[in-house]
Amino acid sequence: MSVRERDANQRDEDFARQASALAREARRAGNHPFGAVLVLDGAAVLTAANTVTTGRDPTAHAETNLVADAIRRALVTRARAPRPARLPDSVP
Ligand SMILES: [Zn+2]
Fold this sequence. Notes:
By secondary structure, this protein is α+β, with helices and mostly antiparallel strands. The chain has a single domain (3-80), classed as Cytidine Deaminase, domain 2 (3-Layer(aba) Sandwich), CATH 3.40.140. It is built from two helices and two strands. It has helices spanning 3-28, 62-80, and strands spanning 35-40, 43-49. 15% of the residues are buried. Bound molecules: zinc ion. Residues 61, 63 line the site of zinc ion (ZN).
């Protein structure tokens, strides 16, 4: 195994440990023990935990919470982006 592969494996293990820590936090809070970590270009960019019980939401799995957070952040970023003063006339 190359140094590069070993480093990548180490990072993957770190992300898995991070997800496990989130799962433990979820369980301590009274939820199901699941955590999710979104990794982009080798870095953890978003994390979430299961909140099914405390949120009284059967869809609030760690991964769905993570995706919902990503969508919220994308919408906020889009809403804050500069826009043209008015749409071109060619747009229906
Ligand atoms: Zn799930």
